[in-house]
Amino acid sequence: MALLRKINQVLLFLLILTLCVILYKKVHKGTALKNETDDDSETPEEVEEEIPVVICAAAGRMGAAMAAINSIYSNTDANILFYVVGLRNTLSRIRKWIEHSKLREINFKIVEFNPVVLKGKIRPDSSRPELLQPLNFVRFYLPLLIHQHEKVIYVDDDVIVQGDIQELYDTTLALGHAAAFSDDCDLPTTQDITGLVGLQNTYMGYLDYRKKTIKDLGISPSTCSFNPGVIVANMTEWKHQRITKQLEKWMQKNVEENLYSSSLGGGVATSPMLIVFHGKYSAINPLWHIRHLGWNPDARYSEHFLQEAKLLHWNGRHKPWDFPSVHNDLWESWFVPDPAGIFKLHHHDS
């Protein structure tokens, strides 16, 4: 009996000892993990912020996107991540152009845009059919293409950046604003530019005020328009306000009622944005969107003004890689030759 009691005591002691060992290991492991976590949090003082820049690379004008990318990358020390958007049949060519040229050092992702999302949302008639190209509507779908970023820059492909893109990224968006644009009323004075005749800078140039649906918006036709060729967007607000759904609604309405003015022939993508963002957008510094360089081949900015400009935009018919065009020397300085030899500059031989 005494022997049995002694065996029980030994077993009890071993059980208690085993429990103590297990408990000690758990506590020690937890402390070690905590220390590792603390150590990690103390490593680099601050991870460099990544600036996402979205740009489209269309088949017939891919050289434009490459020149824009080159100008952005060359004028900043910031950590840029380029999202280069294209249609499926152009993706391999985009990659080849980047990886077999001076752009091979950039940080980039190639994103496919599926035009099926536009089915039934675009009217087939336009005085400028190039504006009906699917990639012209990529800006409507930013949150579907870019997922892990709070703030995003979108630029058209026919731009050149002369300033540090960090400045544009630092644009302040007011509380509740999903985007920032440059007002069309912030155009340069006549001493800075000559030859810009017939420019529209109000909603009247984009919306057909003869239509009841437009009148019922209650927006004055003399309201200043804005240009969505350069956008600084807040993705959280964009999704919260369901901006994409709102834009699609106004695309659909245009298909049904033909609501947008044809006076500019460029209201296809701009007009829905003017409606959706009316009174609800922040301002971009005007020097970060000097535009209309493609409006008239006889129009010219002063050289001093061009040097001050942070971003130049050849919106309009006259692109700097074609003839006729103006200030194309500024654009050509950033041109990256096509490794495949497909994209060529078309300039008049004088």
Automatic annotation (TrEMBL):
Instruction: Please give the InterPro entries that the UniProt record associates with this protein.
Output: Glyco_trans_8 (IPR002495), Glycosyltrans_8_dom-fam (IPR050748), Nucleotide-diphossugar_trans (IPR029044)
Q: Where in the cell is it found?
A: Membrane
This protein's source sits in the domain of life called Eukaryota
Query: What topology does the record note for this protein and the membrane?
Result: Single-pass type II membrane protein
Alphabetized UniProt keyword annotations? Glycoprotein, Glycosyltransferase, Membrane, Signal-anchor, Transferase, Transmembrane, Transmembrane helix
Q: Which GO terms describe its molecular function?
A: UDP-glycosyltransferase activity
One GO CC term, this protein: membrane
Q: Which family does it belong to?
A: Belongs to the glycosyltransferase 8 family.
What's the protein name?
Glycosyltransferase 8 domain-containing protein 2
Which organism's genome codes for this protein?
Answer: Orycteropus afer afer
| Name of the encoding gene | GLT8D2
